[in-house]
Amino acid sequence: MTPTTHDPAPVVRTERIGRTLLITLDRPAARNAVNAAVASQLAAAIDQLEGDAELRAGVLTGAQGTFSAGMDLKAALAGESPEIAGRGFGGLAEAVTTKPLIAAVEGWAMGGGFELALACDLIVAAEDAHFGLPEVTRGLIAAGGGAVRLPKRIPYHLAMELLLTGEPVTGAGAGALGIANRVVPAGRATPVALELAARLAANAPLALAAVKKIARVADGTPEPAAFAAQREEMTALAASADVREGMTAFAERRAPVWQGK
To answer: Do residues 158 and 214 touch, judged by C-beta distance below 8 A?
Structure first.
């Protein structure tokens, strides 16, 4: 693995695996809690993913069996901010990304850790993982995307139970609620997420980006406006070399070679 910055003690590491960038939160002594350094280096890792045309998808995970305990409260009390301007908590919660990002969750994903997972497009969870938003038990709210996103992902009353009680659910429970796309045996979250990322990376990059854009636009937008935005994306895709390549490859019964243009 290589650090995302030249910091002598990197707290976020990246590794290229095929066309996927594996991003690992690496503060195991602090259960991968997010402080200013994590936020800065995670934002840099996302920039690496977005800026490299050879990379098609990302997997976000945590070191040594824990995804993230969320905001580093000690660092926050000392005046550190776990937010990046324009990108929100951890440099990711409010970031607009074009490439698929998968959370691979082992152990605890609490508070901001859960919110980082919710900021990803897909979630793979170990069956014994734990997801929770305990902010109300500390006089806070899940302001890193939990209160905004969770009621849109699962039935309202079930989301409100998690938000108002602060009680966690296991990875198996997250799968039953529809929070996790895959529930896997302990220790398998990252390998399965990488397999899923490879499947996504085999698809046309322009189409993947267009799907993400339309999904964002359609969230809370009246259908006529959403369809209008979709038509613009379809017009752009229809003029791309990748669409012609996809059709040609189908006719020639071969795998497409995407150019991202």
So the answer is: no
Model pTM?
0.90
Please tell me what DSSP assigns to residue 68.
B
Residue 35 C-alpha from the chain's centroid: 18
Give the pair of three-digit tokens for residue 106: 């082992």
Provide the token pair at 153. Answer: 């992902």
220 residue type, one letter = G
C-alpha distances in angstroms, 197 versus 16, 156, 250? Answer: 12, 29, 22
Q: What is the residue whose two structure tokens read 């379809």? A: 234
| Active site residues per annotation | 115, 135
For domain 2-201, which architecture applies? Answer: Alpha-Beta Complex (3.90)
pLDDT digits 0-9 by tens, 28-67? 999 999 999 999 999 999 999 999 999 999 999 999 999 9
User: Would you give the DSSP letter of residue 34?
Assistant: B
Q: Whose CA is closest to 60, among 108, 6, 98, 15? A: 15
The domain ranges of the chain are 2-201, 205-252
